[in-house]
Amino acid sequence: MSEAENKSKQALLGMSAKDISSLLPSCPSYVGAQIYGFLMDGKGFDEMTSLKKELRSTLAKDFIANPVEIVRTYRGKSGTKKYLFKLPDGNLIEGVYMPHDYGNTLCLSTQVGCRMGCTFCASGLDGLVRNLTAGEMLGQVIAVNRDEGGSVKQRKVAKLVLMGSGEPFDNYDNVLKFLDAVSDEKGINIGERNISLSTSGLCDKIVQFADSGHKVTLSISLHAPFDELRTALMPVNKAYGIDKIVAASKYYFQKTGRRVIFEYTLISGQNDSDECAKRLARLTSGFPSHVNLIRLNEVKENGYIAPTVDATEQFLHKLEALGVSATIRRSLGGDIDGACGQLRRRYIEEANV
């Protein structure tokens, strides 16, 4: 089927059972619930064998089951996999599956590309193409869960991080719809305590999200403790400076009771000085927070250099001596360009799909 034909079809994944039923007025209401259950298990219309053959044919003709198709899998060390997904309009996105003893994690994308323009990150090199729908975000979860041999009853994806391509709060409404859908007790049912959302610091949306009733782990990409330096690395800082970010972070904690995580990518000669460590300690004092140090995953286009492992550990020790709760985040997927900051849009020709 052509991309034009696919693009014109409505995807059922992401809809509630009630919504699906409303599209099939000639069918009993329970059929919507049946289809919803099949979709959560990642099944296509031809696999919904308890439905009448005529209905399956109609569904295949008029709708798409999952709008996300796995077109290639890159296997890395320690079981890490980078998935290349194709969307109905031909756009491609990426996700990374990371197996852990405490629960297998999927890093998923929220946009095709990104317009934040962080200078050390590959995801924004091609700019923003478009937002993902809630169904396209959910589709990544369902597709990987099935590919790993999971189902609704026996999930192989237990935790989610919204840290792939895109800025989640730049796609705010769809992200909230996704959170409702993925945590639905009748569906894949991944609770919000097992979900992390990473933002570059859109403070108005952080406050709005704090008031929304959602309680995911909020990770804020700080990456520099001084406004001038952060603006050079992250242009979004022109609109949302560090003082505003800290204030929004404190508000999020007050409203949700959830400790805020500050992501801090160490770049050699940029943000790894003693002065940076001292300023970071002052910024994060006075409320429950944690600093995740990330040793830069190099992207050839920007020319930034990663600090040595020893230098990264030394910076950690400086923070700890200053009373900061901090750890060095284990980096997975670097060997397949799937680590933090390395995900980017691929072209169909490159992927041979």
Structure description:
By secondary structure, this protein is an alpha/beta fold. The chain has 12 helices and 14 strands. The protein has helices at 3-8, 17-22, 29-40, 53-62, 134-147, 172-182, 203-210, 227-233, 242-256, 274-283, 309-321, 348-351, and strands spanning 10-11, 63-64, 69-75, 81-86, 92-98, 105-107, 111-113, 128-131, 159-162, 195-199, 217-221, 260-266, 289-295, 326-328. The protein has a 10-stranded mixed sheet, covered by helices on one side. Helix 10 links the parallel strand 12 (260-266) and strand 13. Helix 7 (203-210) packs parallel to helix 9. The longest helix has 15 residues, at 242-256. It starts with a helix and ends with a helix. Residues 332-353 have low confidence and may be disordered.
Strand % is 15-25%
In round numbers, the mean pLDDT is 91
Give the distance, in angstroms, between the N- and C-terminal Cα atoms.
13 Å
In one word, what is the shape?
elongated
Low-confidence stretches: 332-353
The tally of helices reads 12
The structure class reads: alpha/beta
Q: Let me know the number of strands.
A: 14
Q: What is the CA-based Rg, rounded?
A: 21 Å
The helix content is: 25-40%
Q: What topology, given as strand order, has the largest sheet?
A: 3-4-5-6-9-10-11-12-13-14
Largest sheet: 10 strands, mixed
As an assembly, this protein is single chain
Helices and strands, in order, run as HEHHHEEEEEEEHEHEHEHHEHEHEH
